[in-house]
Amino acid sequence: MKVPLDFNQDLSDPNSDYFRLQAAMGWQIRTTDPPTLRQFLTRVRRAPDPDGKRFRYLDLNSEALGWLVEAVTNEPLRLHIANLVDAAGLEGALHLSCDRMGVPSLSSGACLSGRDAARFFLLIARGGDGVNGRTAGSAGFLDRTRRASDAATINEGCCRYSNHFVVHRDLLMHTGWGGHVAWADPETGVAGVLLSVLTDPQVDESQHLHVLRHDVAEISKSPLVRRTTPG
After folding, report:
1. pLDDT digits (tens, 9 = 90+) for 104-118
2. Cα angle value 125/177/12 (rounded, 5°)
3. Contact partners, residue 15, CB within 8 Å, separation at least 6
4. Which of 196, 173, 188 has its CA nearest to residue 222?
5. Which long-range contacts (CB under 8 A, 24 or more apart) does 89-97 make?
6. Do 182 and 192 meet the contact criterion of CB atoms below 8 Å apart?
7. What is the rounded distance in angstroms from the CA atom of residue 105 to the CA atom of residue 79?
8. pLDDT reading at 79 higher than 90
9. Residue 177 in contact with residue 205, Cβ under 8 Å?
């Protein structure tokens, strides 16, 4: 999120670049002949800021990473997502937003049950050890994510942002649209999900996380929480 891009992600402005990205994702159904996600990405230009200096959370970066994963592995993005789903052992369905060419969106639009979201974060808490002997991801990558010295400080100093995770103490967290929070604690093997709603028009989660981070950390370390093993 320190890549300088000329992209306006103002959620309160219906004319911002963010809502044009939504059209490419298939969310703005009244848009005539929208670009695909990949077409949209090629039209975004760099901002004049230097690389790696300024932190800006932009959904566009997640879409670019998905394209990069495909290019590096020579495998479709949907296959990587399917491997994660299988390793996590989701009980129900995972619904993903796709553009008109069937390319999944990684920035928004994933819908699943709270229990299945917890199963996915259990996969993270266990360093990628999934059900039925399946594995996904990298324990080393997750450990470096927690300990990264160059992670950006966010939300008025309450947390750090590293490799698409919100990091607090031992916790790897991520917020969902409007106030949902999921977390994994690799030290205890505990994961959890909180479903909630924010009424802030900018969907500002800073104060929300200020309060929740302490409660989540306490829950993850509690001896009353039952630990499980992949099965």
Report:
1. 999 887 889 999 999
2. 145
3. none
4. 188
5. 89/119, 89/130, 89/131, 89/132, 89/230, 90/116, 90/119, 90/120, 91/115, 91/116, 91/119, 92/116, 97/25, 97/26, 97/27
6. yes
7. 13
8. yes
9. no
